[in-house]
């Protein structure tokens, strides 16, 4: 997956410089999340891609750091947001100390994590969050893995991308098992002509 995103990083960054794909209700969930974190919170944009959500979080008064598994995406994110610290790292092995952040934003970044690695992602999230910190997870809902690289292949990129679809109850239960409590949820239908799948956002608190 890292190699695929390295190949398409520049095209992705050019096509989605900000919140073009998001609906107002999606952004409202991010605003609700930020509102739970207190004044000038420390927030990790985990799986930050080209940095478009890191910029949004900064605009809302957060002190942001970003990580992504793809060096190509990190390069694009640093170019777009030179004032935000962004590095290469995995959600399964975050390069931060315990209780570093008030909030974690995982905006469509767990979708490429296979089920067997989700417990590690969950435990790492809990480790780097401060007590009563919050985690936001956004994802396409459904069941099981799906190959989703067709759009990039039509543009001439020789890539394969697997996306893991999950039900909100199942993902919430996964994080709850590792010491989180769900505090808010969005579960919406796809926008006709734009999206193929239902979309979900979970906000969870570290208990």
Would you spell out the secondary-structure blueprint of this structure?
Layout: H1 2-15, H2 24-35, E1 42-46, H3 52-59, E2 63-68, H4 71-80, E3 86-88, E4 101-107, H5 118-128, E5 129-140, E6 144-147, H6 150-154, E7 162-165, H7 168-176, E8 180-188, E9 199-206
Parallel strand pairs: 1-2, 1-4, 2-3, 4-5
Antiparallel strand pairs: 5-9, 6-7, 8-9
Organism: Nocardioides guangzhouensis
GO biological process, one term: methylation
Protein name: Class I SAM-dependent methyltransferase
Mind explaining what this structure looks like?
- The longest helix has 14 residues.
- The chain has a 7-stranded mixed beta sheet with strand order 3-2-1-4-5-9-8, with helices on both faces. Strands 6-7 form a two-stranded antiparallel sheet.
- The protein is built from 7 helices and 9 strands, in the order H-H-E-H-E-H-E-E-H-E-E-H-E-H-E-E.
- It has a single domain, classed as Rossmann fold, CATH 3.40.50.150.
- It has 207 residues and is of the alpha/beta class.
- The N and C termini lie far apart (32 Å).
- GO terms for molecular function: methyltransferase activity.
- This is Class I SAM-dependent methyltransferase.
- One of its GO terms (biological process) is methylation.
- Keywords: Methyltransferase, Transferase.
């Amino acid at each position: 997956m890292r190699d695929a995103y390295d190949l398409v990083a520049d095209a992705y960054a050019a096509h989605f410089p900000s919140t073009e794909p998001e609906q107002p209700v999606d952004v409202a969930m991010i605003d609700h999340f930020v509102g739970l974190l207190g004044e000038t919170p420390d927030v990790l944009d985990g799986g930050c891609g080209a940095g478009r959500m890191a910029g949004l979080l900064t605009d809302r008064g957060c002190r942001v750091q970003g990580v992504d598994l793809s060096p190509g995406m990190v390069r694009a994110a640093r170019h777009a947001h030179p004032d935000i610290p962004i590095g290469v790292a995995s959600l399964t092995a975050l390069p931060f100390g315990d209780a570093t952040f008030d909030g974690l934003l995982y905006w469509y970044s767990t979708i490429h994590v296979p089920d067997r690695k989700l417990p590690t992602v969950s435990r790492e999230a809990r480790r780097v969050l401060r007590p009563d910190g919050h985690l936001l997870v956004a994802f396409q809902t459904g069941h099981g893995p799906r190959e989703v690289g067709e759009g990039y292949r039509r543009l001439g990129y020789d890539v394969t991308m697997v996306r893991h679809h999950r039900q909100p109850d199942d993902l919430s239960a996964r994080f709850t098992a590792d010491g989180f409590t769900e505090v808010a949820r969005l579960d919406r239908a796809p926008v006709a002509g734009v999206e193929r799948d239902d979309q979900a956002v979970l906000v969870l608190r570290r208990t």
